[in-house]
Amino acid sequence: WEQLHNFLDGLPRLNPRLHEPEIGKTLASCHRVIEPINSGAFSTVFLVQNSKQEYQAMKAVKKATLSRFDLVKCISNEVQILRRLRHQNVARFYGAAQSREHIIILMEFVGRENLFTFLKQTDTGERKDLEHSQAQDIFLQMSRAIGYCHEHMVSHRDIKPENFALGDEGGRISIKLVDFGMADDLAAPLKYKGTMPFIAPEVIEEDVAVYTASAADMWSMGVVLLEMICGLHALPRILKWKRSMTSDKVHAKDLRILMSTPGRLRVAVSERLRPQFKLLQPLDDVLHGMLSLPIGCRWASLNVLTCQWLNGPEQGPPAS
């Protein structure tokens, strides 16, 4: 409770006579709540409009859940980290406050879609396939966001397609990293794992002796890239992951077998690539670099940002 009170004391209080977040109502005299755009077990994200008629995203976290589920550290970290990040590929933070029942976090509204919904629509044929050059541009923006966070000593710790929001910049897809609810300083110890099946094997195994937060983020980026080039349904086949697994550590063991067997990942990816992609050496280098089992060999964001696949034209023989 002391930790909770210390955190709340640092947030400005909204007038208690004003409404809690409610559709059609105005919060704090300047933000009209339009509709919910996302929700989870502990919070709801609303689309709101400020006094200048600008759209913003408002995350409302129920105070009652903070101490009950040990989330004080998470929400405190999220606010403190967002305050120090400012990058074109990271959703902008506008401020935090509290109502009687909620912690309110105001963020840039990027759009209604994220990378997961985009890939799902390409898989079902609702939109045209992801082009090779488009995938390169999207992944470049994602890598810039992660690289910026790591440069500023922040690890996201929950990299997955849902946490990359999609916007539109004159017909070009713009990408912004969102949801820093599990984020922490790079040097912070292993505590929150993230989301399966994007979690690095050393995180699943809770191997604190080798754990490096930035390396764990990069593994997750590698798994996201697999989904981009192979489709959302490819991960269970490539990574041998099933939701019905009784233990995540079984998955970690399977990952180690997959990645330690020469050529096995390459074959699995080649069999499931989207038709517009070819597994040439530059793309293969990126995948194996980010999905390297030894932490010391795993690519950092700088390796990805300077790799041949993102700085084309992509050339070279088929991966071997």
Write the layout of secondary structure elements.
Layout: H1 2-9, E1 26-27, E2 31-39, E3 43-49, E4 55-62, H2 63-68, H3 72-83, E5 93-98, E6 102-108, E7 113-114, H4 115-124, H5 132-151, E8 154-155, E9 164-169, E10 172-177, E11 184-185, H6 201-204, H7 213-230, H8 235-239, H9 248-260, H10 264-270, H11 281-290, H12 301-305
Antiparallel strand pairs: 1-2, 2-3, 3-4, 4-6, 5-6, 7-9, 8-11, 9-10
Helix pairs in contact: 5-7, 7-11
Can you give keywords for this protein?
single chain; 320 residues; alpha+beta; Phosphorylase Kinase, domain 1; Transferase(Phosphotransferase), domain 1; 2 domains; 6-stranded antiparallel beta sheet; 3-stranded antiparallel beta sheet; 12 helices; 11 strands; 18% strand; Kinase-like_dom_sf; Prot_kinase_dom; ATP-binding; Protein kinase domain-containing protein
